[in-house]
């Protein structure tokens, strides 16, 4: 199992379904699951699965019978969008005043 470093989420390897289950740690609701794509071990295997996230939680790493599998994490916090940056740029404008430019804020 592994905790998401950026949000209140727990990832758990489920050997019965060969998937990573994703839980909200505030409510313990199952948010979904992510198929690993191969056998991650027998249900009662004495060898535990290793599960980890990248620092930004965009990647999950899980051990399987063939080694370590790297999966893209659709439950990770999305990257900031360029649309947000565009909205910030549109909110402020450079206006010529005499021989200099002044930054002016648009009223919302």
Topology (elements, then pairings):
Blueprint: E1 2-3, E2 9-14, E3 19-24, E4 30-35, E5 51-53, E6 59-64, E7 67-72, H1 82-91, E8 92-97, E9 100-105
Antiparallel strand pairs: 1-2, 2-3, 3-4, 5-6, 6-7, 8-9
- The radius of gyration is 22 Å
Q: What percent strand?
A: 35-45%
The amount of helix comes to under 10%
**Tertiary shape:** elongated
Query: Which stretches of 5+ consecutive residues score pLDDT under 50?
Result: none
User: Would you report the number of β strands?
Assistant: 9
Structural class: mainly beta
Q: What's the N-to-C terminus distance? A: 46 Å
Q: Taking all residues together, what is the mean pLDDT?
A: 79
Oligomer: single chain
Topology order in helix (H) and strand (E) letters: EEEEEEEHEE
Query: What is the topology, as strand order, of the major beta sheet?
Result: 1-2-3-4
Main sheet specs? 4 strands, antiparallel
Count, helices: 1
Describe this structure in words.
The protein is mainly beta. It has a domain at 2-72. Helices cover 9% and strands 44% of the residues. The protein has one helix and nine strands, in the order E-E-E-E-E-E-E-H-E-E. Strands 1-2-3-4 form a four-stranded antiparallel beta sheet, with no helix packed on it. The chain has a three-stranded antiparallel beta sheet with strand order 5-6-7, with no helix packed on it. A two-stranded antiparallel sheet has the order 8-9. It starts with a strand and ends with a strand. The model has no long low-confidence stretch (mean pLDDT 79).
């Amino acid at each position: 199992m592994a905790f998401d470093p950026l949000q209140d989420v727990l990832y758990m390897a489920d050997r019965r379904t060969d998937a990573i289950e994703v839980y909200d740690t505030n409510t313990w609701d199952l948010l979904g699951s992510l198929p690993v794509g191969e056998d991650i071990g027998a249900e009662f295997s004495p060898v535990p699965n290793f599960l980890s996230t990248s620092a930004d939680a965009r990647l999950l790493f899980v051990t399987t019978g063939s080694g370590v599998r790297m999966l893209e994490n659709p439950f990770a916090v999305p990257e900031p969008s360029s649309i947000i940056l565009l909205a910030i740029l549109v909110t402020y404008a450079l206006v010529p005043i005499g021989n200099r430019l002044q930054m002016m804020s648009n009223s919302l």
